[in-house]
Amino acid sequence: MDLRQLSDAIESVSSRYAASLGVERDDIWHMLKLQEEVGELTQAFLTRTGRARTRGRTPAEIEADFRAELADVLCQVLLLARHHGVDVEAEVRRKWLSRLPDQG
């Protein structure tokens, strides 16, 4: 699956979820939802690194939480980009991959 296909699939899931809750996914929602997910990733990271309570979760559950929150942040970034018409793949090529030695 390429990035565009992934973005399409994530959009489908997100739009169905928002419709079921009656949520309008506007500019503000996209930005705040990303912020919420970054906060959850931060909490998972703190727990994973012993800087926050485990709340009785096992090491395996803590690791799974961290991985899941990484996925949530990625999905929200893709949704935000899509909402604003940003081609993330093109921007990664321009901003990051253009700095590879063989791209010079």
Automatic annotation (TrEMBL):
InterPro entries found in the cross-reference section: MazG-like_dom (IPR004518)
Native source organism of the sequence: Nonomuraea bangladeshensis
SUPFAM superfamilies tied to this protein: all-alpha NTP pyrophosphatases
NTP pyrophosphohydrolase MazG-like domain location: 31-90
Gene3D superfamilies xref list: MazG-like
CDD domains per record: NTP-PPase_u1
Protein name: MazG nucleotide pyrophosphohydrolase domain-containing protein
